Amino acid sequence: MPTYEFLCQKCKKAFASVCSVTEYEQRKQRGIKCPKCGSSKVDQQISAFQVQTSKKS
Ligand SMILES: [Zn+2]
Questions:
Q1: Which of 27-31, 33-37, 45-49, 53-57 has the lowest average pLDDT?
Q2: How far is the CA of 32 from the centre of ligand 1 (A)?
Q3: Which residues surround ligand 1, an ion (CB under 5 A)?
Q4: Amino acid 50: pLDDT
Q5: Report field, pTM of the whole predicted structure over 0.90
Q6: What φ, ψ does residue 25 adopt, rounded to 5°?
Q7: CA of 54 to the centre of ligand 1 (A)
Q8: Yes or no: domain 3-53 corresponds to CATH 3.40.1350
Q9: pLDDT-based confidence at residue 2 (cuts at 50, 70, 90)
Q10: What separation in Å is there between the alpha carbon of 47 and the centre of ligand 1?
């Protein structure tokens, strides 16, 4: 399962969420909230882990 990484714009708390793509889409529609301050202003970070999976050499 992919790991989704987020950074809260409000308190700068970084957090990660491991869930399926379907579950992630559902969460995104409801709004992803910071576990620390509860703010919904979170940026998604692109993790290196996801980039590596599509690389073929
Ligand atoms: Zn926060």
A1: 53-57
A2: 11
A3: 8, 10-11, 13, 34, 36-37, 39
A4: 54
A5: no
A6: -60, -40
A7: 31
A8: no
A9: confident
A10: 19
